[in-house]
Design a protein that fits this description.
Strand content: 15-25%
Oligomer: single chain
Shape: elongated
Order of helices and strands: EHEHEEHEHEHHEEHHEEEEHEE
Structural class: alpha+beta
Number of domains: 1
Largest sheet: 5 strands, mixed
Distance between the termini: 41 Å
Radius of gyration: 23 Å
Length: about 280
Amino acid sequence: MSFPKVLYKYRNFNDFTLMSLINQSAWFSGAKQLNDPFDCQLTFDKYVPSKDQFLEKVELARKELSKKLGKPVTLNLPPECFDGDQLSEVYCRNIDDFRSQIESHASRVGVLSLSENGDNTTMWSHYGSSHSGLCIGYNMEVLAKRYPLQKLLHKVNYEPALEISFNPFDKYAECCCGNDQYGYKKVATEMLTVKSDDWKYESEWRIINGGIGNFDLGNEAIESIYFGLKSTVDMKITVSNILKAFPVNFYQMVRSGSGLAVEPEFMNESSKYWTQEAE
């Protein structure tokens, strides 16, 4: 999977941001701590498929696994799976255990939300303290040397809100009825990386790792800092002093020459924005 060279994190200017800059770290939130209660779909619907519907899903999963492994795969379901034309109560309990395993895994992982865009005015308003905060540009190529981003970094998928639904029976079938050892992790990741298309403007990517809390990103992970349109001189001086030992580029967000937009202006050592505010 290819990913953008730089991804962005909008921040308020507060103690937590200062600590992350000083320590070259980032906070990975638990899924339920994200900014919106509908940010992640971590619950399953309650629809129970018929025997034929379930077997159809299993057969699709078998073919997919055979293709993935490059050899034929046989999935033998025990006779106690079914009670007439329906799934048996015993087998439903197995699937309920599978659901609990997914929810448990999803509750333990940490999520760092990033964006492809550092100049989105809505995101500056929502996450950048109404344009008085800052935006951090993280170099993904540098981070990839420290963390296996090919496995941890995921592009968020946006779908109509009413179409986002996860059924434990469907997902159990997709995981080859427990024969795919890591299937539950795949399902948990899928649930953590789908959002309502109301959020599409965020162009979000997520790093999903094995824990919640602060994680070291390394001394060269921060490639650039973008100061909001209403950022103060004191804030800019403070941030530049924290990062002066590192090869970080600084930018002042200014009003675009056309339209209701903002754009970055590079700040060299003699930039006027070190001694004055953009607005």
